[in-house]
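Is manganese (II) ion placement plausible here? Inputs below.
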Amino acid sequence: MNIHEYQAKDILRSYGVPVPRGRVALTADQVERAARELGGKCVVKAQIYAGGRGKAGGVRLTSNQEEALHAAKDLFGKTLVTPQTGPDGLIVRRILVEEAVEIAREFYLSITLDRQSSRYCVIASAEGGMEIEALAEQSPEKIFIETIDPYIGLRPYQARKLALSLGLKGRLCEECVSLIMNLYRCCLDKDCSLLEINPLVVTGADWLLAMDAKINFDDNALFRHAEYPELTDYSQIDPLEITAGEFDLSYIKLKGNIGCMVNGAGLAMATLDMLAEYGGAPANFLDVGGGATKERVAEAFKIILGDPEVKGVFVNIFGGIMRCDVIAEGVISAASEVDCTLPIVVRMDGTLVEEGKRLLDESPLNVKFTHDLVEGVESIVGMVGLMQL
Ligand code: GDP
Ligand code: MN
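Reply from A.M.:
I modeled the complex. Tokens:
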């Protein structure tokens, strides 16, 4: 789960991590007022669920409140496209106004999960700023990593090693050690899957400051944090993904034109691969889960059809826990409700498959039934057409 930079900074502040003074604003007038309160010279930062804003014009340094107002008017409602947003970009609805700070040095610092060792690791680099991905590829020796033993926890010597590798000495080094220790405490308490500060800066006045902050929470731990759902900014999430979340469906929109409804994440992945293999392009990943009801299947179908790019639907279900007649009923009721005229191919097998087939055959839908996966994939690609992504 994502949150905005200003929310991440509120959390960091509560863990004793130094962050710039700032206010979040929902209107241009609020930006102007905040800029005045902060002394005029400030940074106006678009709040979207993606980084790379600096290069996309989403971070503006302004020297007085008029300039801040001007920047805010330009940014509010604008769609920012950054390397992290995808081609459609994200719309700016909130702006963080912060005091402008003079930067002497910029570092990269983060804590994230290393999936290979299944442990948290702290990553630091003296070459912070905006190009950390490129740095990781071109000069990996400039990136320092400390892996954390979950039983022992992060040790101060590990944090000190990282601080020294950033070239920090004396008071700044010790400040950085406590900052890293505090970040780790925050990670554990808040169940973060990513906590990233890029850049962490040494200011002109020689203080450490977290100039940017990004936090992702681990979705599997959301049940431990009743307060998280209200942090969500729904303007930043695809409406179809929001609906899917309400019905407990795993849905991810993709760029193709074949809507897919599959049970089980593994089968869903295999289905996407098969479609690609036969020249088709999936419009989404959708796992309806093991024990879906007729209502959930119907909802899943409506979500697929809610995507205007979808030109045909491929249903690939193995009826183990889920009965094939239930799937068929769900598909029929959803397709009739939304007057679906698109071609549908249903590949089903397993429990009560004959009953499911009979229901589909008797329905007025434009639907083709098959037991065979390859035949199903060839049919839907044949009907929708080849598409290169
Ligand atoms: P991102 O591009 O989405 O990661 O957004 P950041 O918050 O990291 O901002 C991008 C860049 O703007 C930073 O790397 C800084 O170089 C610069 N920046 C942000 N705030 C300030 C500030 O207060 N003073 C100065 N001089 N630069 C800033
Ligand atoms: Mn940044």
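Short version: The chain is about 35% helix and 25% strand.
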